[in-house]
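Q: What structure does this chain adopt?
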Amino acid sequence: MTSAFTDALAWLIVGLFAAAVAYDWYEGERGRGRARYLAAASWVVFGVFWAALFPHFAFEQRSFIEGALSFAALPACLYAAYLLVDGRETLFLLSRAVAIMGLIYLPFTMITPAKHLLIETVAAQGAFVMDAMGYEFEVINHGREIQGTYLFVHPTKGEFTTNVLLACTGLGSMAIFGGLIGAVRAPLGRKLRALAIAIPVIWGLNLVRVVFITLAFSFQWFQIFVDPISGLVGYQNPNMVSYFISDRVLAQSLSVVALVGIAWAVAREVPELLTVAEDVLYIATGDDYDLHDAVGTDRPVRADGNGEKR
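A:
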């Protein structure tokens, strides 16, 4: 979160989506009138939230991927709101997922001991890996309380420090899959197997990401790109180019690929999640896709024996 405004907006969004889910459960087959409009309003506010984050991602963080996604989120959320009002009831599943994602992620932004424990655990494991690889460095305090900063001494350019922040823990990706898996109506055993696939893989890949970015920045692996990147991004410190390439370009791009792969593996255990993917593709393209047929799984049915209503 970047400000008190976006923090408050995030909690408002979770509350609105949770209320929409509650109304959906209460209204059931009676028409989903209030639930439909409340869920649509939640998507509108969700779009405003991402629009508010766009300057942070695009200009402060200099992340083209996160900036582009946050920029595209506003029209996508507005379109989702329109589709809900228009009768696309499968979007209630994605609405439930967003509520659960927020309930997983946001407490770590508010409960300081939990936040510190998560950061320090990732930092300690990253240190273990780099120590096993034979690198010499120190783990020092970030601020006054969190021991989550790696200090390397470059042979010619001096000291380099890399901070492990909450965004570096993989919590966001774990919250996404936790929310999606928690939102679907599927047997508990299959949900637990899906979590057992997603969470360890995300944790392990994120640890690789932390180690890679730290080493690339500390040893200035990508300085051959100083001139084009400095001109493009506007870094005053040329040493930041290696950080930009390793994090903003390589790590974030590969993270998208990894998340798609994890989603495919999870969908094999919980094919109900393919309904969410179909809705996302419909929002992005305007066309319906049958991913259940593509993956070779049966489309889930409701208790009354009918398929999910579009």
